[in-house]
Task: inverse folding
């Protein structure tokens, strides 16, 4: 089974801190994604990557950056955390850009910024 | 830009009923569509993937259909059970756009 692992389930950070959210997948997938999910707003795409060292902006990239130095690891970075970044963050992966690929999600990371 | 809409936003039905969840999308060029289940506080679990060349997929009591011409997909749940209570989301299998989900409650 594909496994997408988000290293931190629950985090509490202070405003202005630099925050790293880590995601690792174990099935040699090319595509990786970061989303945030908020009540009433649904799932929104922050950044995605189709290959190592590649990144593409999603719908709400402001205030975030990403790093993909290795194929299996995709990190989301909040350079200076703000209270409006309090949310649940979800990482996902899929095989490649071809058709018919299932998307697999991690369990989510709950981030609270105080 | 692809937009995905799910109706209804919430649904509560007695146990044992058959039910249909709806998903509509604006761009008929959607290649593949995926249905997911999300339990409270958890990530999304893939239920069914329908490729653009297919019209439906089945897994157990679940059946998903895709009609690209009308921009619609439906998820049919047969003989609903309390354990089916969750939020159900649909989205393109490209991972770029998702609906906001239907929150389903099955009353025992």
Result:
């Amino acid at each position: 089974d594909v496994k997408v692992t988000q290293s931190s389930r629950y985090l509490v950070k202070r405003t202005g801190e630099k925050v790293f959210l880590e995601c690792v997948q174990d099935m040699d997938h090319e595509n990786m994604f970061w989303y945030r999910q908020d009540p009433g707003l649904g799932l929104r795409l922050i950044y995605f990557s189709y290959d190592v060292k590649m990144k593409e902006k999603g719908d709400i990239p402001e205030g975030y950056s990403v790093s993909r130095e290795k194929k299996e690891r995709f990190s989301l970075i909040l350079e200076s955390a703000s209270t409006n970044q309090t949310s649940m963050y979800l990482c996902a992966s899929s095989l490649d850009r071809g058709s018919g690929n299932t998307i697999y999600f991690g369990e989510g990371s709950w981030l609270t910024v105080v | 830009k692809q937009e995905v809409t799910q109706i209804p936003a919430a649904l509560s039905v007695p146990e044992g009923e058959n039910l249909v969840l709806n998903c509509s999308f604006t761009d008929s060029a959607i290649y593949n569509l995926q249905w997911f289940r999300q339990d409270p506080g958890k990530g999304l679990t893939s239920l069914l993937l329908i490729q653009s060349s297919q019209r439906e997929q089945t897994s157990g009591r679940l059946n998903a259909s895709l009609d690209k011409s009308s921009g619609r997909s439906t998820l049919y749940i047969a003989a609903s059970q309390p354990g089916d209570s969750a939020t159900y989301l649909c989205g393109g299998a490209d991972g770029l756009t998702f609906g906001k989900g239907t929150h389903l409650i099955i009353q025992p």
The first strand of chain A starts at residue 4 and ends at 6. The mean pLDDT of chain A is 94. Residues 22 and 75 of chain A are 5 Å apart (CA to CA). The radius of gyration of chain A is 13 Å.
